[in-house]
Specification:
Helix content is 28%, strand content 25%. The chain has 6 helices and 8 strands. The protein has an 8-stranded mixed beta sheet with strand order 6-7-5-4-3-2-1-8, sandwiched between helices. Strand 6 and strand 7 form a beta hairpin. The chain is globular. 31% of the residues are buried.
Length: 239
């Protein structure tokens, strides 16, 4: 085995280890990023969990902002390297955020409150490690909504994920039926998701670009500096 092959194997093993594998969080903008996120959603919610019979797409996809967790591909193959992916990165998790209300569940709030939701949190089965990328997706999702003026942030979560959400600053409201399954309706404690502590410059610029919002009226962003480091989190277990 050549020195190159030895180095390549060592690199592959290091990146593929659940304890050392790193990913970054950003909004999906390119076609290959969005198609990868939707593929993971179908794999988790249709093929793996059987919540949907064919596709998990709904009306919120037309207005939602999609976050993805990505990390560099070590090997180029048709599964991980999608058309248009010139950076050779793999999408291994996703979540979406959007305003509005789910029609089957009224959340108590005053008429002037800006209510946001997080949904379709999913991580590819082969990329679930000991430390969770889902945590990074959740924190970035809530902080992004706060930056956009969110007053309250809710989600429907499966019972298996209760510990994860409690750990990152959510409170349980009640057990409900959602998508024909038992889910907990939960609300994020927004005080624990300060955008200036969670969002880096790349994410702030993406929000401005995707929403057309200058974000200049958000007090939470008043301390953002230009030298915020890129956020990196380790990869995940399923959600």
């Amino acid at each position: 085995m050549s020195a190159f092959d030895v180095a390549r194997t060592a690199t592959h093993q290091a990146l593929d280890s659940p304890r050392t594998r790193l990913c970054s969080i950003r909004f999906a903008e390119k076609d290959w990023e969005l198609s990868s996120a939707r593929r993971i959603r179908r794999e988790v919610f249709v093929s793996e969990q059987g919540i949907f019979s064919d596709d998990d797409k709904d009306r919120f996809d037309a207005v939602a902002l999609n976050l993805i967790a990505v990390f560099p591909c070590v090997e180029i193959n048709p599964t991980t390297l999608q058309a248009g992916n010139t950076a050779a990165e793999e999408v291994m998790g996703t979540v979406r955020i959007h305003g509005g209300r789910f029609p089957d569940k009224a959340v108590p709030s005053s008429s002037h409150e800006r209510v946001w939701w997080g949904s379709r949190l999913a991580v590819a089965a082969e990329r679930r490690g000991f430390v969770t990328a889902a945590t990074g997706l959740i924190r970035t999702a809530v902080a992004s909504a706060v930056a956009l003026g969110c007053d309250r942030f809710f989600a429907h979560i499966q019972p298996a994920n209760r510990r994860l959400f409690k750990r990152v600053g959510w409170r349980e409201i009640e057990l409900v039926e959602f998508e024909n399954r038992s889910h907990w309706l939960v609300e994020a404690d927004l005080s624990q998701f300060d955008p200036s502590q969670v969002l880096n410059d790349e994410l702030i610029n993406q929000i401005r670009k995707l929403t057309g919002s200058p974000l200049s009226k958000s007090p939470a962003l008043s301390h953002l500096s230009s030298d915020l480091c890129s956020m990196e989190v380790a990869t995940s277990a399923s959600t």
